Amino acid sequence: MATLVTFHAHPDDECINCGGVMRKAADEGHRVVLVVATRGELGEVEDGFLAPGEDLTTRRVAETHAAADILGVSRVEFLGYTDSGMMGEPSNDTPGTFWTASVEEAAARLAKILVDESADVLTIYDDNGGYGHPDHIQVYRVGKRAAELAGTARVYQATANRDDVRKHMSEAAAADGDDSFGPPEEWEIGKPLAELTARVDVSAHVAAKRAAMRAHASQISEESFFLAMPDPVFAEAFGVEWFIREGAGPGITETDIMAGL
């Protein structure tokens, strides 16, 4: 049995980015540990969604634990930083946010968990955080440094296949006439296929991945992009998870981030 530590910025990021490999690893007998930098304090929620007296932070922590159970997670840890908000918002500079945190200090917190768990594999994000969110970019910086401090050699950057994203979003925009996202060639989501080194087929685990998304009901409603699509379309869109491993490639050279462990 090996240990996978998967590091994310906010509650719900884990199931969207790595839900398939998490459930796959758990089903194969590996230990899965989820570390979240913030509690998603700045998430948006519809009026009346929360119970009287309930705050969003408490709700999002509970949702994270519920999703973690679905994904086979053995341990959940929060690093204790607060949500920085989208890039360019005033909240980016608020003291205590993840974006303003010292990379060395935050990396030491994560490295302690990696050492405690004798982590074999760590997932972080790509250097642009997938789509430019400050907390996601910080996950890359902090995670990479933490792996160095802890001596965790196998580090995978969770990302998206930009070529696929542009293709599917372009097709969707053409079908419903919605061009609000702008020209497909300008969508800076994920990385080009040529830069990706690992393609993991998680089609056997998409039901768990979708159920974990549903557990984050405060942020992912039934009307959302993720849950509104029919099951077959969801399986096609989320049945593969993509990663970059420094030193691997060029091209896809791995199909299982836990291979050989």
Automatic annotation (TrEMBL):
<protein>
    <submittedName>
        <fullName>N-acetylglucosaminyl deacetylase, LmbE family</fullName>
    </submittedName>
</protein>
<keyword id="KW-0862">Zinc</keyword>
<dbReference type="InterPro" id="IPR024078">
    <property type="entry name" value="LmbE-like_dom_sf"/>
</dbReference>
<dbReference type="InterPro" id="IPR003737">
    <property type="entry name" value="GlcNAc_PI_deacetylase-related"/>
</dbReference>
<dbReference type="Pfam" id="PF02585">
    <property type="entry name" value="PIG-L"/>
</dbReference>
